[in-house]
Amino acid sequence: MEPGITASDGSVEGQQWNVVGHTYTPKLHSENAMIWHAIIPDGTFVPPHIHPTQDEWIVMLTGNLEVEFGADVHKAGPGDTIKMPMGVAHGIFNRSGAEATCVFGVAPSRKLFDLFGKLDGVTDPEELVRISAEHEVDFLPPPDAE
């Protein structure tokens, strides 16, 4: 990682991705960590999944999100930090009626930067699951498939 500042309107390597309807803008990327700004429209979500090799967290800036850990639903708003330890299944949902913004992070970064580049604009769920599995993110089957 190079020392310095990523400007509020800047990103790592000029990148910005559309992943599951969210806008992700990477702000820091090194072998040890990755941080990205996210705009999460109302009605969008990341289905339940597991990061077997990374801890993940979200710092809420605006709006509200719900994070599901199995049957447990946690609600987070501005200023809250959501903690998602490696190996623990979680899904992230915006059911608030308004856009949410937040800063995500993972440690270590592993293959996530490359994953987001490959998922940019992917809309086919099966392809999203396949590509994610190749990059150490494992989606759970839908409830009706279990």
From TrEMBL:
<dbReference type="InterPro" id="IPR014710">
    <property type="entry name" value="RmlC-like_jellyroll"/>
</dbReference>
<dbReference type="Pfam" id="PF07883">
    <property type="entry name" value="Cupin_2"/>
</dbReference>
<protein>
    <submittedName>
        <fullName>Cupin</fullName>
    </submittedName>
</protein>
<dbReference type="InterPro" id="IPR011051">
    <property type="entry name" value="RmlC_Cupin_sf"/>
</dbReference>
<dbReference type="InterPro" id="IPR013096">
    <property type="entry name" value="Cupin_2"/>
</dbReference>
<dbReference type="InterPro" id="IPR051610">
    <property type="entry name" value="GPI/OXD"/>
</dbReference>
<keyword id="KW-0479">Metal-binding</keyword>
<dbReference type="GO" id="GO:0046872">
    <property type="term" value="F:metal ion binding"/>
</dbReference>
<feature type="domain" description="Cupin type-2">
    <location>
        <begin position="38"/>
        <end position="103"/>
    </location>
</feature>
